Amino acid sequence: xxxxxxxxxxxxxxxxxxxxxxxxxxxxxxxxxxxxxxxxxxxxxxxxxxxxxxxxxxxxxxxxxxxxxxxxxxxxxxxxxxxxxxxxxxxxxxxxxxxxxxxxxxxxxxxxxxxxxxxxxxxxxxxxxxxxxxxxxxxxxxxxxxxxxxxxxxxxxxxxxxxxxxxxxxxxxxxxxxxxxxxxxxxxxxxxxxxxxxxxxxxxxxxxxxxxxxxxxxxxxxxxxxxxxxxxxxxxxxxxxxxxxxxxxxxxxxxxxxxxxxxxxxxxxxxxxxxxxxxxxxxxxxxxxxxxxxxxxxxxxxxxxxxxxxxxxxxxxxxxxxxxxxxxxxxxxxxxxxxxxxxxxxxxxxxxxxxxxxxxxxxxxxxxxxxxxxxxxxxxxxxxxxxxxxxxxxxxxxxxxxxxxxxxxxxxxxxxxxxxxxxxxxxxxxxxxxxxxxxxxxxxxxxxxxxxxxxxxxxxxxxxxxxxxxxxxxxxxxxxxxxxxxxxxxxxxxxxxxxxxxxxxxxxxxxxxxxxxxxxxxxxxxxxxxxxxxxxxxxxxxxxxxxxxxxxxxxxxxxxxxxxxxxxxxxxxxxxxxxxxxxxxxxxxxxxxxxx
Length: 596
Description:
- By secondary structure, the chain is an alpha+beta fold.
- 14% of the residues lie in helices and 32% in strands.
- The protein has an 8-stranded parallel β-sheet.
- The N and C termini lie far apart (62 Å).
């Protein structure tokens, strides 16, 4: 059967409330069979995780349907070494919250479920948020397909493989070579240390089912056009038997008030004028609500509807009043100040323990006065981007690298890298928070840079593209990006590229009782919270000086949290302690702190 890719689309929180509570979870084993492993460090949210409560929230906030069933919970697991266990999905096998905390490169997951009788007559779609790295999926002994890509969402129409009634059996066979392969893997390494961390193998995002009518929406493409005061929407839909050409309609809401609509062939771009546009920004992250419907030409009573959302904002290059090339946000030069956010968790590794934990990182980033974050060589679950959209945080989204720390004789899978790069862009391009795609980090796995930058620009001309953050700039894309530790420093703005500092800082401070191990390191050590805060204020004061005097458009500080042995974070790895005095850090980040 042909795999269907989620090209996710966009729904304000009120549309999620009904969908948050899915149909009752059917567990393949008793809850008493599971307990978290004793890992090196845990977060306060670990206590809220259980087989009955394993990321129960609706996983796709940008394209919401009312009916769905969550398949997170206990699954049977057979490891490549022959041992068997129970694993809590969606936590990777290496994580404490999985209950296993062991690495193997081959796994087989199994569980059973039943299809609700209310779904009779509909097609059923099986969704995976992400499985690292290769996943062969079978249902009732019938192979659905093989997916490769550790950060991609993917799905299958399982209708033809379902039994008429009763228990259905799903199996997922996983292979993940980590750094012995040439695939994109970010900071994962079999022997972690320094700036490389514990790998993630297997299912690490939500697995779920949803029913759809034969004619249904597959994805949306939503592009805000601030200059023309409108939103442009393309609806990708599947036609049921005898439904002919498809029709689509869209309705835009400002709160409860419908403010515009459009309809036409589903293959056309639908344009809705937005009166008195309310711009989305970190200060005022206003989101419009959206209802989208698709049907056959005869307006079948089985029309499919989804709810979504979007923000009206514009990111572009432009000249300031001195003729310097700047990153312009909503037509104005805005100094972007953010942390490097690697998205690792001591108890969940790649997976946050709960949705509240996921939200916490964004609220804390905002509390520290940042308006931006750089999601570093990792792609997050949709709900992380939803919270950035909802709370107002600009995002630089990195493509996970096929890391340059791989054995030099190990060939990189460049075609697979391009495929995953395209999937990353097309499955996240409706989030207003994302303003820049970062194709490479430094020279880690860098190849065909000019071609890949052009490909991303062709896919998404509404955003900026960073060809390589740090080393090995190839003189293409929208920014010239330098790394400087501790820095800060600034490259020189160019006629057609803005100057940004993609990494700097790295002030280290281990805190007893809140470290992954006794052995820790930082780029530049500090003695105390006050010492780190003072050092941070000096760095940020210099950064703001470079903004004015050298034309620097953005700075990214290393980093938001400690990660394993690396203690360069503003927060401890368990998120229990802030290692800077928050009010002083916020003043420094907004240019109101002490001068250098």
